[in-house]
Amino acid sequence: MMKIIAYSLAAMLGLFNSPLLAEGSEYQIELIVFSQKMHNTEVFDQTSRSIHWPSDLTELSAYRQPENTTLDDSYAALSKDSAYRPILSAAWVQPVVAVGLSAAVHIQSSDGNLNGYVRMQQDQGLQMVVDLELGSDLGDDSGNEVVYRLNEKRPIKPGETYYLDHPKFGVVAKVSPL
């Protein structure tokens, strides 16, 4: 009887619709970033880094690391194929807000050549926002570094694996609810 009264009181006070109960859920986010040696006729003329950094950027190390990852076979397959070179493999557990943008997570390779962020957005479904830049080992004709940028917002279904494509590098991503 006391439970029924407590639930009724909570419902009348609107607690089930409060931000405390609607904050969102935790997700395990996994990424593999790799370069690819594909013949390409596209011209890339970006010679400076142009990411617009969000104010809520959080370092990857601030998040809990998952006990198990699911993209290990994908990483192994990329490592074995000479057309690809894995640059970074990362996995973390992050809370995703029920509506709006979650904190942006800083993604950077150990040599600093890959730099950018990933964030989750929840509106009418879950979306992944990826903004990454990869500096080239080769310069342009005037000796300036060429920078390749992958800037994409992709609707995703939790638990499915996605490939984000750029002629010079790519991302394999998976977002799973916990």
Automatic annotation (TrEMBL):
Superkingdom, taxonomy of origin: Bacteria
This protein's record includes keyword Signal: yes
Annotated signal peptide: 1-22
Keywords: Signal
Name under which the protein is recorded: CsiV family protein
InterPro entries the record matches: CsiV
